[in-house]
Amino acid sequence: MSRTAPLAVPDSAPGSAPRAESLVLPAPAKLNRLLHITGRRPDGYHELQTLFQFLDVGDTLTLRPRADGELRLTPRLDGVAEADNLILRAARLLQAESGRRLGADIHLDKRLPMGGGLGGGSSDAATALLGLDALWGLGMPLAELARLGLRLGADVPVFVHGHAAWAEGIGERLTPVTLDTPWFLIIHPGVAVSTPAVFGAPELTRHTPPITMARALQGGAASWRNDCQETVRRHYPEVARALDWLAQRAPTMLTGTGACLFARLETESQAERLLAEVPESWHAFTARGLNRSPLHAALGR
What does the DSSP 8-state code read for residue 258? Predict the structure, then answer.
């Protein structure tokens, strides 16, 4: 168990000075406060409706410029080939699209569990795009950076735009929203959930009737659900056990395809008291919901 430290936001706006000596930038986590699957496309992707919200915890990237065009990332992530690393893919894509031959040393302080449904890899990629845009003095519009981000993954654009959002399509059609900002207890039950396996499961709900954003927001958090939750519960007993344990204590939902789940609490003290009760076999932390990404606050965008 832990109380993950909130992401630091520098007093100044480091992104305002191109080619700064270094930038230390947050890559915040996200929650899916609602997730509906409304259809399956011919290409195999699913049509979604979801509400994205940021958290005040996440990974941290330190970026330092290089004049030789080299891109170097430390440390290596276990089980992730360099060609598949979203940070390096984002950096190379930005190099190619901008035509600039500057490079960077990038250090990742990884705090978020990989494959937990908190958007860690997508957030890291977005921080790399925005951070290197500032470090290299490119000045690309957010819309262009989001377009590049979509080539890396459907969740990357929301981190690039940096505001809580109602999302449709495969998650790339975004409308900014203002959500409540409660405290959350997040639990990772210690298992890895396969997103392709969840979306490929024959029993997965795929035909939830689409609703309007206004109706979703009118209904409020008490009416929100995650269409992936029952499928994950069926195939991952430890996630089911954590969901049952937490649901006895507070309103509970899976984020994304998991394995992380969260409970919504009104105050920090409530979240901390519940954190103290979490079984030692699970990793848990508390966090505050945010409507503006701390990455954007750090860069002054």
Answer: -
